[in-house]
Design brief:
Elements: E1 6-9, E2 13-14, H1 21-41, E3 46-53, H2 57-65, H3 70-87, E4 94-97, H4 101-117, E5 120-130, E6 135-137, E7 147-148, E8 153-154, E9 156-165, H5 171-179, E10 184-186, H6 188-199, E11 205-206, E12 208-210, E13 219-220, E14 223-228, H7 230-235, H8 237-240, H9 249-254, E15 259-263, H10 267-280, E16 288-292, E17 295-297, E18 300-301, H11 312-319, H12 321-331, E19 338-340, H13 342-370, H14 391-403, H15 407-429, H16 431-437, H17 439-460, H18 465-477
Parallel strand pairs: 1-3, 1-15, 2-3, 3-4, 10-16, 15-16, 17-19
Antiparallel strand pairs: 5-6, 5-9, 7-8, 9-11, 12-14, 13-14, 17-18
Helix pairs in contact: 2-3, 5-6, 6-10, 11-12, 12-13, 12-15, 13-15, 13-17, 14-15, 15-17, 16-17, 17-18
Bound molecules: 5'-O-[(L-methionyl)-sulphamoyl]adenosine (MSP).
5'-O-[(L-methionyl)-sulphamoyl]adenosine (MSP) is lined by residues 11-14, 22-23, 25-26, 53, 234-235, 262-263, 265-266, 294-295, 302.
């Protein structure tokens, strides 16, 4: 297995409603990582996996309410997800739908294998189940022990014949793998939460539901009166998306997965059920689960059920894909919760994109044209601009921050330590004055700026691929055009 390979995943999203800005956040981050590591390791050594989680009671409920077949309904929503990913330049290598034939076969194979090994067994289960979250809840998570705080809806009590997965058997092993960082859970506060949850005792979990209740699911091969619990079905996408278990090639190359992105809502199930399933299948566990922050919108919790979602398509139409990608990752550190709003995106857009990088490129190229200069692209990375990071220092900092998923720190660095000093350099050197008495110095100064612009393009490439393509074209052809036309605030 190549050491320099990178496999990144997003959760596969529920298709009960259109994609929202929370989904965009995770997928943009995954895309930035994939693009960065493709540049470092080569395209063939990176795999970026995403998709949709399509089974379960909730989808069934919504489709029925719309008098549609579940698959018909999910086809429609999936088209919406794919549309947003296309507009945002999300460069996934595979988009898996849990309704894909090969995935369904694989899920059946896994449930049968775990049943044959004794990891899945027949029992009964009593549980509080929130249809909104598609998750069983513990009493302590609920209001008055029965109402889901996220969906403000009464949980169902399930006491029924079910098949259970022997999660408790893996408690000690999971605790060891997580505390030793063999399964790295970041940020560390999340690791500690997960560990105390595990130490509180893991119970065996139901991995099936009665088909009469949830018919929109994958049948258990050894008992067709039951369908597979959605999480077991969904987790397997991370493997089936690589062709497993039919095709071994991509699994050999990319498994174990390097980074699995998610928010705090699903880290517990990923750290316990999913990792225990891998252990039960004799497969290596995930290398890292990275838990990013939760968005609020204008200070309020955003959720599909509460209806205060920011619509990606509208934002992309207004600001362009790259400005959306940039501003959501720039706004707050990736592992912390934070607030986002259209006004915040607009401010970033005008200040850092229109007045910042956009203005710098346009100004520099206009001067180069005005004074008929012919700057050459150099390969040295000595930087003469005061307070501007040398290329080597910037690349080191990007590499370290990418490893730690500190996207915001990278963008701050590019802005504070490269774009701003380069702008200042132009102010201080006053090329318009030099043009009057020192043409040699003028050419030298503008060549330095010109070369710095190529470096800025390199740094921003994973974040703003479309802009960087335009920027490089403008630089190569000395053709300035506004990259980010200013947008006025609506009164
Ligand atoms: N289908 C399951 C995941 C199965 S993975 C094997 C699911 N889907 S979901 O549509 O609800 O997506 C949850 C994920 O969407 C979060 O973990 C996070 O990645 C992203 N986000 C959803 N809302 C978000 C915010 N408000 N803020 C940040 N991320 C959000 O759970």
């Amino acid at each position: 297995m190549s050491k320099n390979k990178f496999y990144v995943t997003t959760p596969i999203y529920y298709v009960n409603a259109e994609p929202h800005i929370g989904h965009v956040y995770t997928s943009t981050a995954a895309d930035v990582l994939a693009r960065y590591y493709r540049i470092q390791y080569g395209k063939e050594n990176v795999f970026f996996m995403t998709g949709t989680d399509e089974h379960g009671a909730k989808i069934q409920e919504i489709a029925e309410a719309k008098s549609m077949k579940p698959k018909e309904f999910t086809d429609e929503i999936v088209a919406g997800f794919k549309g947003v990913w296309k507009s945002l330049d999300i460069s996934y290598d595979n988009f898996l739908r849990t309704t894909d034939k090969d995935h369904i076969e694989a899920v059946k194979w896994v449930t049968q294998t775990l049943y044959d090994n004794g990891d899945i067994y027949k029992g009964s289960y009593q549980a509080l189940y929130c249809v909104g979250c598609e998750q069983y809840k513990t009493i302590s998570e609920l209001i008055d022990g029965k109402i889901c705080p996220d969906h403000n809806r009464l949980c169902e009590v399930h006491e029924e014949e079910a098949y259970l997965f022997a999660l408790s058997k893996y408690q000690k092993q999971l605790e060891k793998l997580i505390s030793s960082d063999e399964i790295l859970i970041s940020p560390v506060a999340r690791k500690n939460e997960v560990l105390s949850f595990i130490r509180g005792g893991l119970e065996d979990v139901a991995v099936s539901r009665k088909k009469e209740k949830v018919s929109w699911g994958i049948d258990l091969p050894f008992d067709e009166t039951q369908t597979t619990y959605v999480w077991v079905d969904a987790f397997l996408n991370y493997l089936t998306g690589l062709g497993w278990p039919k095709e071994q090639k991509l699994v050999d190359k990319f498994w174990p997965v390097d980074v699995q992105l998610m928010a705090k809502d699903i880290v517990r199930v990923h750290s316990t059920i999913w990792q225990a399933m891998l252990l039960a299948l004799n497969l290596p566990t995930s290398k890292q689960l990275f838990v990013h922050g939760y968005f609020t919108v204008d200070g309020k919790k955003m959720s599909k059920s509460l209806g205060n979602v920011l619509r990606p398509n509208e934002l992309i139409e207004k600001f362009g894909a790259d400005a959306v990608r940039y501003s959501i990752l720039r706004e707050f550190p990736f592992g912390s919760d934070g607030d986002i709003s259209e006004v915040k995106i607009l401010d970033r857009y005008n200040y850092e994109l229109a007045n910042g990088v956009g203005n710098l490129v346009q100004r520099a190229l206009s001067m180069i044209n005005k004074y008929s200069l012919k700057p050459t692209k150099k390969t040295t990375d000595v930087c003469e601009i005061d307070e501007c990071y040398e290329d080597v220092k910037m690349r080191e900092s990007i590499s370290r921050n990418m490893e730690e998923l500190h996207f915001e720190a990278i963008l701050t660095d590019v802005w504070q330590n490269v774009i701003r000093p380069t702008n200042q350099y132009l102010e201080e050197k006053k090329p318009w004055e030099l043009a009057k008495f020192d043409l040699v110095e003028l050419a030298r100064v503008m060549e330095i700026v010109y070369n710095e612009l190529f470096l800025i393009a390199n740094y921003l490439e994973p974040f703003m691929p479309e802009t960087v393509e335009k920027m490089r074209f403008q630089l190569e052809n000395l053709k300035p055009e506004p990259l980010f036309p200013r947008i006025e605030k609506e009164q």
